[in-house]
Structures are given as C-alpha cells and as structure tokens.
Amino acid sequence: MKTNSHKIALVTGGNSGIGYATAKYLLERGYQVYICGRDSVRVNQAADSLQATALIADLANMDDTSQLAEPFVESGLDLLVNNAAIASFAPLEHITQSGFMEFVYTNLGSPLFLIQALLPALEKKQGSISFISSAVTRNGLPNASLYAATKGGIDAITRSLAIELAPRNIRVNAVSPGAIDTPIINKLGLSEEVIGQVKAQMEATIPMHRYGRPEEVAQVIVAQAEASYVTGSIWSVDGGIDAM
User: Fold this and answer.
1) Which residues have a catalytic role annotated?
2) Predicted TM-score (pTM) of this structure
C-alpha cells in the first residue's frame, strides 16, 4: 500500500521492537522514514534492512537532540513517534538517585526536548506526535514503580501538549501497549525457563490469551496519527486487560 509518499516520519528507537515495526509499517504505507538511536551499528543495520534513513543521536545529549531537527528544517515533519525509552525493573530498595534521574530524563525529558527542537518542522506540516505509554500505568507490576511513574508522566504530557499545541495544528496522542512480544521481558534478568513461566502466567490473565505483536501496536500508532480529529487520546493495545 502506497498512500503517503509525500509524508515524512521520524521514529526514535526505531532499530528494534515496536519502533522497528512502526518504521516498517510506515514505509509500507509510503512514508519517507527516518529512524534514530545511539548505537550506530544497530541503527544502521536496521535502516539498511528497512530501507529507511538512519540518524545517530543520543537523546540524553542536548546537542544531539538539536541536531535531529536539521534534516526536517526545509521539508517539515508529518509524524514524530517518541518510542525510545529505558525499560528496566528493580525493587524499591535498589532504586538509586542517579538511576532515578536517568529514568526521568530519558523517558520524560528527552522526548519533551526533542519535540521542542522539532516544533517548527511539525508546525510546517501540521504534524502529529505519538508517544508510547504502557498498560502498567493502570495495572500495577512489582519492581516497576519507576518505569510506571515515567509512563504515567507520558500520559499527562500527552493530554497537556494536545491542548497546548492544538492552536498550532499539531496533534498529540499516545498508545498504551500491554504485554507485547518484544525483547523487554529479557531485561528482567530472569532465566529462559522462568521467562517462559512468566509469559504463560501473563497470557492466562489476558482476555485474548496471548501476547500482542509489535506490528499490532504499529498499526494502532499509525491509525491514530492519521485520524485527523484525534488529539489528547491514549489508546489501549493490550488484548483486553484494560477492560477487566
């Protein structure tokens, strides 16, 4: 399907998981797609595989964030997918001040400053911003308090920026995935056997009795971005967990 050849999208963290699937789906729909990340090897490999354009940037670095706006000065930007985030889990006793600051800046500060840098480009194309939230903001998960807090912040930012940027014809939305089959579960520090048990236990609690696939989240991100009367919305993609 080639319907949006004139449209340009930037996907942060586009080298794996939901970001990669979103970049792939956008390309299938005819977008010109840029993906960014800080690992040049992984980002370039993903870009080559997708036939997208690679941008190497560490979003924790303000200079890198500012430079990410440069490719879109003339062309403008139709869609920014703020996907890059830290996802690690630890009990309360193991949370440190430095870890807290890294989490908050990476998951909340970086996307905010990236939007700030890209505002002229987004305004030029009356663009759309998509955040990736999480079902964990509404469904508690042990050892995830810091991660959940930053994703809850994303929900709040989404609603506030939607109101603030509406007069500039920029829409802001978020998707809230539940259990999606991505490498994130491997960051729990568990053995393969235990991971299998955790997956089985989680699947038993999901009304659809399975994990979601990254491409299923990507389809919702793009549908939301292309729905021109939608802003300030957070759409659940969780197999029915939020309905329980």
Assistant:
1) 147
2) 0.91
In 95-211, at which residue ranges do the beta strands (DSSP E only) sit?
128-132, 171-177
Instruction: Give the residue numbers spanning the domain of 146.
Output: 8-237
In a domain, 231, yes or no: yes
142 in a structural domain: yes
* Local confidence pLDDT in tens for the 244 residues of the chain: 455 558 999 999 999 999 999 999 999 999 999 999 999 999 999 999 999 999 999 998 889 999 999 999 999 999 999 999 988 787 888 888 988 898 899 999 999 999 999 999 999 999 999 999 998 888 877 888 888 999 999 999 999 999 999 999 999 999 999 888 876 666 555 567 766 777 787 788 888 888 889 999 999 999 999 999 999 999 999 888 888 7
Tell me if 244 is assigned to some domain.
no
Query: Is 177 within the bounds of a domain?
Result: yes
Instruction: Give helix then strand counts, H and E, for the chain.
Output: 8, 7
